[in-house]
Request: fold
Amino acid sequence: MVLESRTGQNPEHEHFDDRRMEVIMGRLLQVGVLLASFVMIAGGLLYMHAHSGETPNYRVFSSEPQRLRHFSGVFEGIQTGDPAALIQLAVLLLIATPVARVAFALIAFLIERDKLFVVISSIVLAVLLYGFLRPQ
Amino acid sequence: MTLSLFTGLLFFGSLTAGLLGALTGLGGGVVLVPLLTVFFHVDIRYAIGVSLISVIATSSGAAAAYVREGFSSVRIGMFLEVATTLGAILGAYLATVVHTQALAIIFGLVLIYSAVVSWQQRKEAAQQVKGHSRWSEKLELSGSYPDREGKPCRYEVENIPGGFGLMFVAGTLSGLLGIGSGAVKVLAMDKVMKVPFKVSTTTSNFMIGVTAAASAGIYLHRGLVAPGLAFPVMLGVLAGSLIGARYLVRARTAVLRSVFTLVVLALGIEMIVNGVTKWF
Reply:
């Protein structure tokens, strides 16, 4: 039964097996990276324009400003036209891409009615969301 | 150095790191962090933050090629991601308490280890082990992949607790050092769990992105992802790894690979020496 559902021979799972899930998830990742890259290029070029003439120094560690570390700050920054906020949006999109992949896998396992893997992917998603959304 | 020159150099440096990562199969991060710290004198914490972002980009960007091959196992990946993501969160917390010079030394050791693994992979032929594992069936981790004639080739997974434990270590290293720790992941899946080579390499690629995403958010909240670095580095590594995957892997690269493995080894030694001399 388990093997059948995987190879797609079971009629019930004919249109939705692990292989099909992999293909859709692969696309999802590609779209996410493409989107993040476009936002990154736009933000980066604007950043270069805004900061031209400055001398970059990353030798000494000084944490990035608070406003660039959180969703709300990043969105406010974009509204005021801060190029650095646009770059951070690209970073957020990039981090969200694998998270979306796991969320999709969870939905796919729900459709397959695979309880064990619904639990396993829920745990992974919970850990990812903890890292992503954790306040502070 | 002006901003445009710095950004341009960073872009081409990151492109090289991405190429090297694809060529050695070690991933972009392993070469990127030493490049940023040794040659661009970037603080290692910034280097790790931006490296994590590049690791996600590389892993997701390569997804299409891996899916086409059709060897990856979403179940093995998802199961082991429980271990790697938890490890990654622990690693991200450890990063706040570990001295930066100690970070450099640990990084150097991982580099040397990775170089050795990459060297062995080159020589080793694919091994076929047929065993029977009860847990492999219970956890639905057994599977099949198409062989050369396209016939499904069955496989089972062995020593699941051992593999799971090693994956936790791989995740911790990823969160601590900002790398994909592909070398440890391949060790856990190939050597310990006896997953067929083709399945383990492709599955590992997906896991790397998910693992890095677990700690990347924490690094971003801490202000360790610098926009001025993220722009050239992420795009450079992504471009480099895509070019590397497309053109270099298929070419005859045995010699190039040996040379680059030596480069990784040298970078590892450099990071350790640098770390030790600055610390004491």
Summary: Confidence is low (pLDDT under 50) at residues 1-15 of chain A. Chain A has one domain: 20-133. Chain A touches chain B through 71 residues (CB under 8 Å). Chain A is about 70% helix and 0% strand.
